C-alpha cells in the first residue's frame, strides 16, 4: 500500500475535533517538522497528507504523523500506523522500534 493511502487511512480514523488537534500540532512544530497555519487552514485530510509529503517526503510524513499521534495520546492509531508503514518498507529498521526522538 502506498504511503499516501496509509496516512490518509490513519487521518480518516480521527474525528473532526481530533483532526483539528492534529493540525494544531503540525503548526506548533515537532522536532524539525512545522507547517505554517496558512497551509493547513480549511484543508481536507487528503490535502494535509499531500502537504506533509511534499514538505517532508513520504518517510518524513510518516514520522511526523507518528509523532503527532503520540503527542495526542492516540497510541493505538500510532501502533497501527507504525505497523503499516513498516510493512510498506518505509524505514523498516527504525519503525519497529520507533521512539519520539524523531530519528530514523
TrEMBL record:
InterPro entries to which the protein is assigned, alphabetical: DAPIN, DEATH-like_dom_sf
Ranges where the Pyrin domain occurs: 1-87
SMART domains noted in UniProt: PYRIN (SM01289)
UniProt-listed CDD domains: Pyrin_ASC-like
Residue stretches spanning the membrane: none
Protein name: Pyrin domain-containing protein
Organism per entry: Sinocyclocheilus rhinocerous
